[in-house]
Amino acid sequence: MSLVIIGTVAFDTIETPFGKTDKILGGAGTFASLAASYLCDQIKLVSVIGEDFGSRNLAVIEDRGIDVSGVQIVPGGQTFSWSGRYHNDMNSRDTLATDLNVLADFDPIIPDSYQDCEYLLLGNLTPQVQLTTLARLKRKPKLVVLDTMNYWMNVALDDLKKVLQKVDVLTINDAEARQLSGEYSLVKAAKVILAMGPKYLIIKKGEHGALLFGENQIFSAPALPLADVFDPTGAGDSFAGGFIGYLAKVKSINFTNMKNALIFGSALASFCVEKFGTDRLVGLTEEDIQKRLNAFVALSQFNL
Amino acid sequence: MSLVIIGTVAFDTIETPFGKTDKILGGAGTFASLAASYLCDQIKLVSVIGEDFGSRNLAVIEDRGIDVSGVQIVPGGQTFSWSGRYHNDMNSRDTLATDLNVLADFDPIIPDSYQDCEYLLLGNLTPQVQLTTLARLKRKPKLVVLDTMNYWMNVALDDLKKVLQKVDVLTINDAEARQLSGEYSLVKAAKVILAMGPKYLIIKKGEHGALLFGENQIFSAPALPLADVFDPTGAGDSFAGGFIGYLAKVKSINFTNMKNALIFGSALASFCVEKFGTDRLVGLTEEDIQKRLNAFVALSQFNL
Questions:
Q1: Is residue B143 predicted with pLDDT exceeding 80?
Q2: Comparing C-alpha atoms, which of B29, B26, B49, B25 is closest to residue B37?
Q3: Where's the Carbohydrate kinase PfkB domain (chains A, B) (predicted)?
Q4: Which terminus of chain B has a smaller tally of CB atoms within 10 A, N or C?
Q5: How many Å apart are CA B239 and CA B147, to the nearest integer?
Q6: Res A233: pLDDT
Q7: What are chain B's domains?
Q8: B56-63 long-range contacts, CB within 8 A, separation 24+
Q9: Rounded Cα distance, B189 and A227, in Å
């Protein structure tokens, strides 16, 4: 009865118009599990780090009650690290450096204690690692959510298509949906992609919100308009974590719950971008989250 | 007790990936008044056409119960005409020709029978013509909605700022909001623009919907995801017409009604793009509109 999240735990070095960081805690697995931790219990992380990672960084994750026994520490290894600079519009960025380090040989080991997995988030990693993870789970999870990106469409499309046949939900952005489907219209793109395997497709549109396709229905979730986006790093991962965290809490998969899950995911993502790295995603209160959900209701609900 | 709409009545020649038209009926005043005609009575149009316009085209407008006694016919004059080609993504277009013709010397004459105007839509025209229209109304309307575009920000910013001081609602797109305010964040842009005069600001984002700012609140209206956008010409004008048409019907200006007006405007715009020119905006039934409104509810409403 657990939510297993596999994804990177990393060092990020970030430059935005608001400032510059040293190497700080980042990674898709980190953001997703922190976000989910506000919505459900029994979160179990699978990842890999180097000996340089430091116990203080790992404590940030553990302090939120997240099980890190599936986070391998490679002796003498260096942690995956990424460095990037955001442009003034905060919608585009340049990657300055990507050092795979221990991630290059990542073999996802699933501890026995993780075999109770009912909800699985396959964070953005090589499709091969995602396939291995699925193969190593002895029981098929109730729900598998897959995150991926254009890079894997370019270099590992065949493997990616194999993963797509085994998952329930795919989350990608609008450009990636167009690339994967070869269709410009997102409605047509969704049709093509849903035929590849997943029952639900979430298309993330950044400041324009997200669309959910499935069960012959469409739902449009707004993004919260913000005066300042401080650091967008991890927003998509926080969204995915909030999304699956909500479903793991309510334990029932249908379009109505999926819609709410999109709103919870969007709320968590809206916190993430308010500070550098994971700073805003630690120490949120129940009241913070309730207020933010209320803001989404006010933003998008009407009564004709 | 009428809704006065001032805007172009024109000939459009349109090329899209779906086909090509001859000179067909178009113009902001046409689209806006047709859209509004499904929501309220007593619509009165101010515009100018040439002798070439033809009674059949005018009949399309009159047949919807729209008063055209304020549409001047210039003897021997040629009607304003525009020609454009949409790119494959339908989000961008090239203007192939703009022939102002009778629009070049347009002096907006307001018939006495229009002086009962309570709702006024100032369609996209020179700010000077918009100012003249306002000056010629003997009684201040209950609500003035202004549409404009980047072109007037480039060539007539001072006049535009004068109009802004006299209107209640401004509708522009996101790029125009950024240009007018000098702010990238739409939240900051809205703050700057609302300080220029209007009490409400609507930022249109095309396939991403629209944002309404005012009364220290924000509302996000979705756009209906469509498999095929056949011809986007007139979508923004249909939106504006549906928006003010709804408010003229309910006769009460507050944020709650403004939210609904955005949804009605979006619904009318979603019809407009389904066929060339005004083809889809004539002959809609009450049932068509109710079904479309239901689609907007299904698309965006949730229950946490």
A1: yes
A2: B29
A3: 20-279
A4: N
A5: 11
A6: 94
A7: 2-300 (3.40.1190.20)
A8: B57/B25, B60/B25, B60/B30, B60/B34, B60/B278, B60/B282, B61/B9, B61/B30, B61/B33, B61/B34, B63/B282
A9: 9
Task: Answer whether B169's CB lies under 8 Å from B202's CB.
Answer: yes
Which residue in chain A is spatially nearest to B184 when comparing CA positions?
A89
SS3 A106: coil
Tokens found for residue A280:
């805003």
Distance CA B59, CA B40 (A): 19
The beta-carbon neighbor of B89 closest among A184, A207, A208 is A184
Least confident window among A22-26, A78-82, B90-94, B197-201: B90-94
Instruction: Give me the residue label for tokens 């949906």.
Output: A177
Assign residue A154 a region: left if phi > 0, alpha if psi is -120 to 50, beta otherwise? alpha
Tokens 């995915």 identify what position? A240
* Run of H or E including B170: strand B169-173
- Render the burial of B180-190: b for 16+ CB within 10 Å, e for the rest: bbebbbbebbb
The percent of residues in chain B predicted with pLDDT above 90, rounded, is: 95
| Chain A residues close to B250, C-beta within 8 Å | none
Element (H, E) at B290: helix B286-300
Task: Give me the pLDDT at residue B92, please.
Answer: 81
Q: For the stretch B153-168, what's the b/e string if a residue is b when 16 or more beta carbons lie within 10 angstroms of its beta carbon?
A: beebeebbebbbebbb
Cα–Cα nearest to A82, from A106, A98, A103 = A98
Q: What are phi and psi of A10, to 5 degrees?
A: -145, 175
Residue of chain A with shortest Cα separation from B304:
A260
Q: What is the pLDDT of residues B260-287, one digit of tens each?
A: 999 999 999 999 999 999 999 999 999 9
| Residue B279: Cβ-neighbour burial (10 angstroms; 0-12, 13-18, 19+) | middle
CB pairs under 8 A between A and B: 94
- CB distance B204 to B248 below 8 Å: no
Task: Tell me whether residues A88 and B228 touch, CB distance under 8 A.
Answer: no
CA–centroid distance for A147 within its chain: 6
- In chain B the first and final C-alpha atoms are separated, in Å, by 41
The pair of structure tokens assigned to B34 is: 């047709």
Judge: A220–B211 Cβ closer than 8 Å, yes or no. Answer: no
